Amino acid sequence: MAQTIATAELRARFVEAATAKFATNVPDFVALQKLVADNGGRFRNDHGAIRTADPAVRDLFVEAAAVLGLQRDLDYAFPAKKLVSFDLQVPGDDSTQFKIFVSQVDLDAFPPDVAALIREDCAEQAGAVDHAPFSALIAKAGEAGLEADETRVFIDYFVDRLMTRNGPPMKRSTLEAVATVSGEAASALALGPDFNHVTIDVLAAGYHGIEDMTAAMRDHGLSLLPEIQGAPGTRLRQTATMAATMDTPVREADGSIGSAQTEKQFVEIIERGLVERDDGTPHIFKNFLAANAEKIFGAASTRSRTPAESC
User: Fold this and answer.
1) Which of 43, 95, 166, 210 is 20 to 30 Å apart from 108, CA to CA?
2) How far is residue 298 from each of residues 131, 216, 242, 261, measured CA to CA in Å?
3) Domains in the chain: boundaries
4) Helix (H/G/I), strand (E/B), else coil: 249
């Protein structure tokens, strides 16, 4: 009988593949990897994050993440951003395990006409891809595990097909309508359910604290959010680079393909602190804080623009 791949190894291979894909799109991340190496530290990806407007994609993502040993943990709400979120975690208290922060565009919070445009866009994406073979592979993983060849297929599909925007470019009119309500939701539609950010652990990177790493990043010309989220000594401190403005294909009213400017992907850095369990023993905080995350969301928010601005 062929040997199946352990869950932890599956997760490690997924993180490696998804991080490598992210690096091809985000020059700031490549620069930060070099900065960490030059500092004598090591890159540890604390978490990645996705945003999606399609509940079916969200559910399939959660099922696939379960194959990696990640389970839904806490819920978070962001009414001002029109997002509802949750984290996927490895069970237990080990804060060093890779996590995924999943945000769902809250369609009920949108004006009905804009929500209808988002649903139309999701339907176009869904109609362009058949996830049934992937779902069958997920089921097989749950029943008997995945062998080496199946693991490669699983990881490749997860990273390169599920975590992407499938189908035709979105309509410019949809992008603009959504951006007037939520820049974060507009960025989600433009990118698809790919990692909109990955996160470098400050202490693993060899810095004494987040202030030191932030200063080093600014010295190297990186543009960051104006403030660090979380006070010194608290359970969670974070900041992020500002997402670069990127050209994104869109469909014009006449059916031709144009280009719109969007902000989609950035790099976060994180410093986790101690909290106490119910029995009073300390451990490193592994979840997230909504107040921090809401400010971090601003690193990738696509504002409404006129066509002339986007061309």
Assistant:
1) 166
2) 32, 22, 8, 16
3) 7-310
4) strand
Is residue 301 very low, low, confident or very high in pLDDT (cuts 50, 70, 90)?
confident
**H or E element: which one contains 236?**
strand 236-240
Task: Determine the pLDDT at residue 277.
Answer: 86
Cβ partners under 8 Å of residue 22, min gap 6: 29, 48, 194, 195, 198, 265
**Residues 121-143: pLDDT tens digits?**
999 999 999 999 999 999 999 99
What CATH number is given for 7-310 in this structure? Answer: 3.10.180.50
| Predicted local confidence at residue 302, as pLDDT | 73
Beta bridge partners of 72: 88
Residue among 57, 45, 58 nearest 19 (CA): 45
**pTM of full prediction above 0.70:** yes
- Taking only the tens place, the pLDDT of each residue in 184-215 is 999 999 999 999 999 999 999 999 999 999 99
Which amino acid is located at 8 in the chain? Answer: A
CA torsion sign, 176 to 177 to 181 to 185? negative
Say how many C-beta atoms besides its own lie within 10 A of residue 194's C-beta: 23
Residue pair 72/88 in contact (Cβ under 8 Å)? The answer is yes
Q: Identify the pLDDT of residue 303.
A: 66
Pairing between strand 45-52 and 99-105?
A: parallel
DSSP E strands, 35-192: 45-52, 71-78, 83-89, 99-105, 170-171
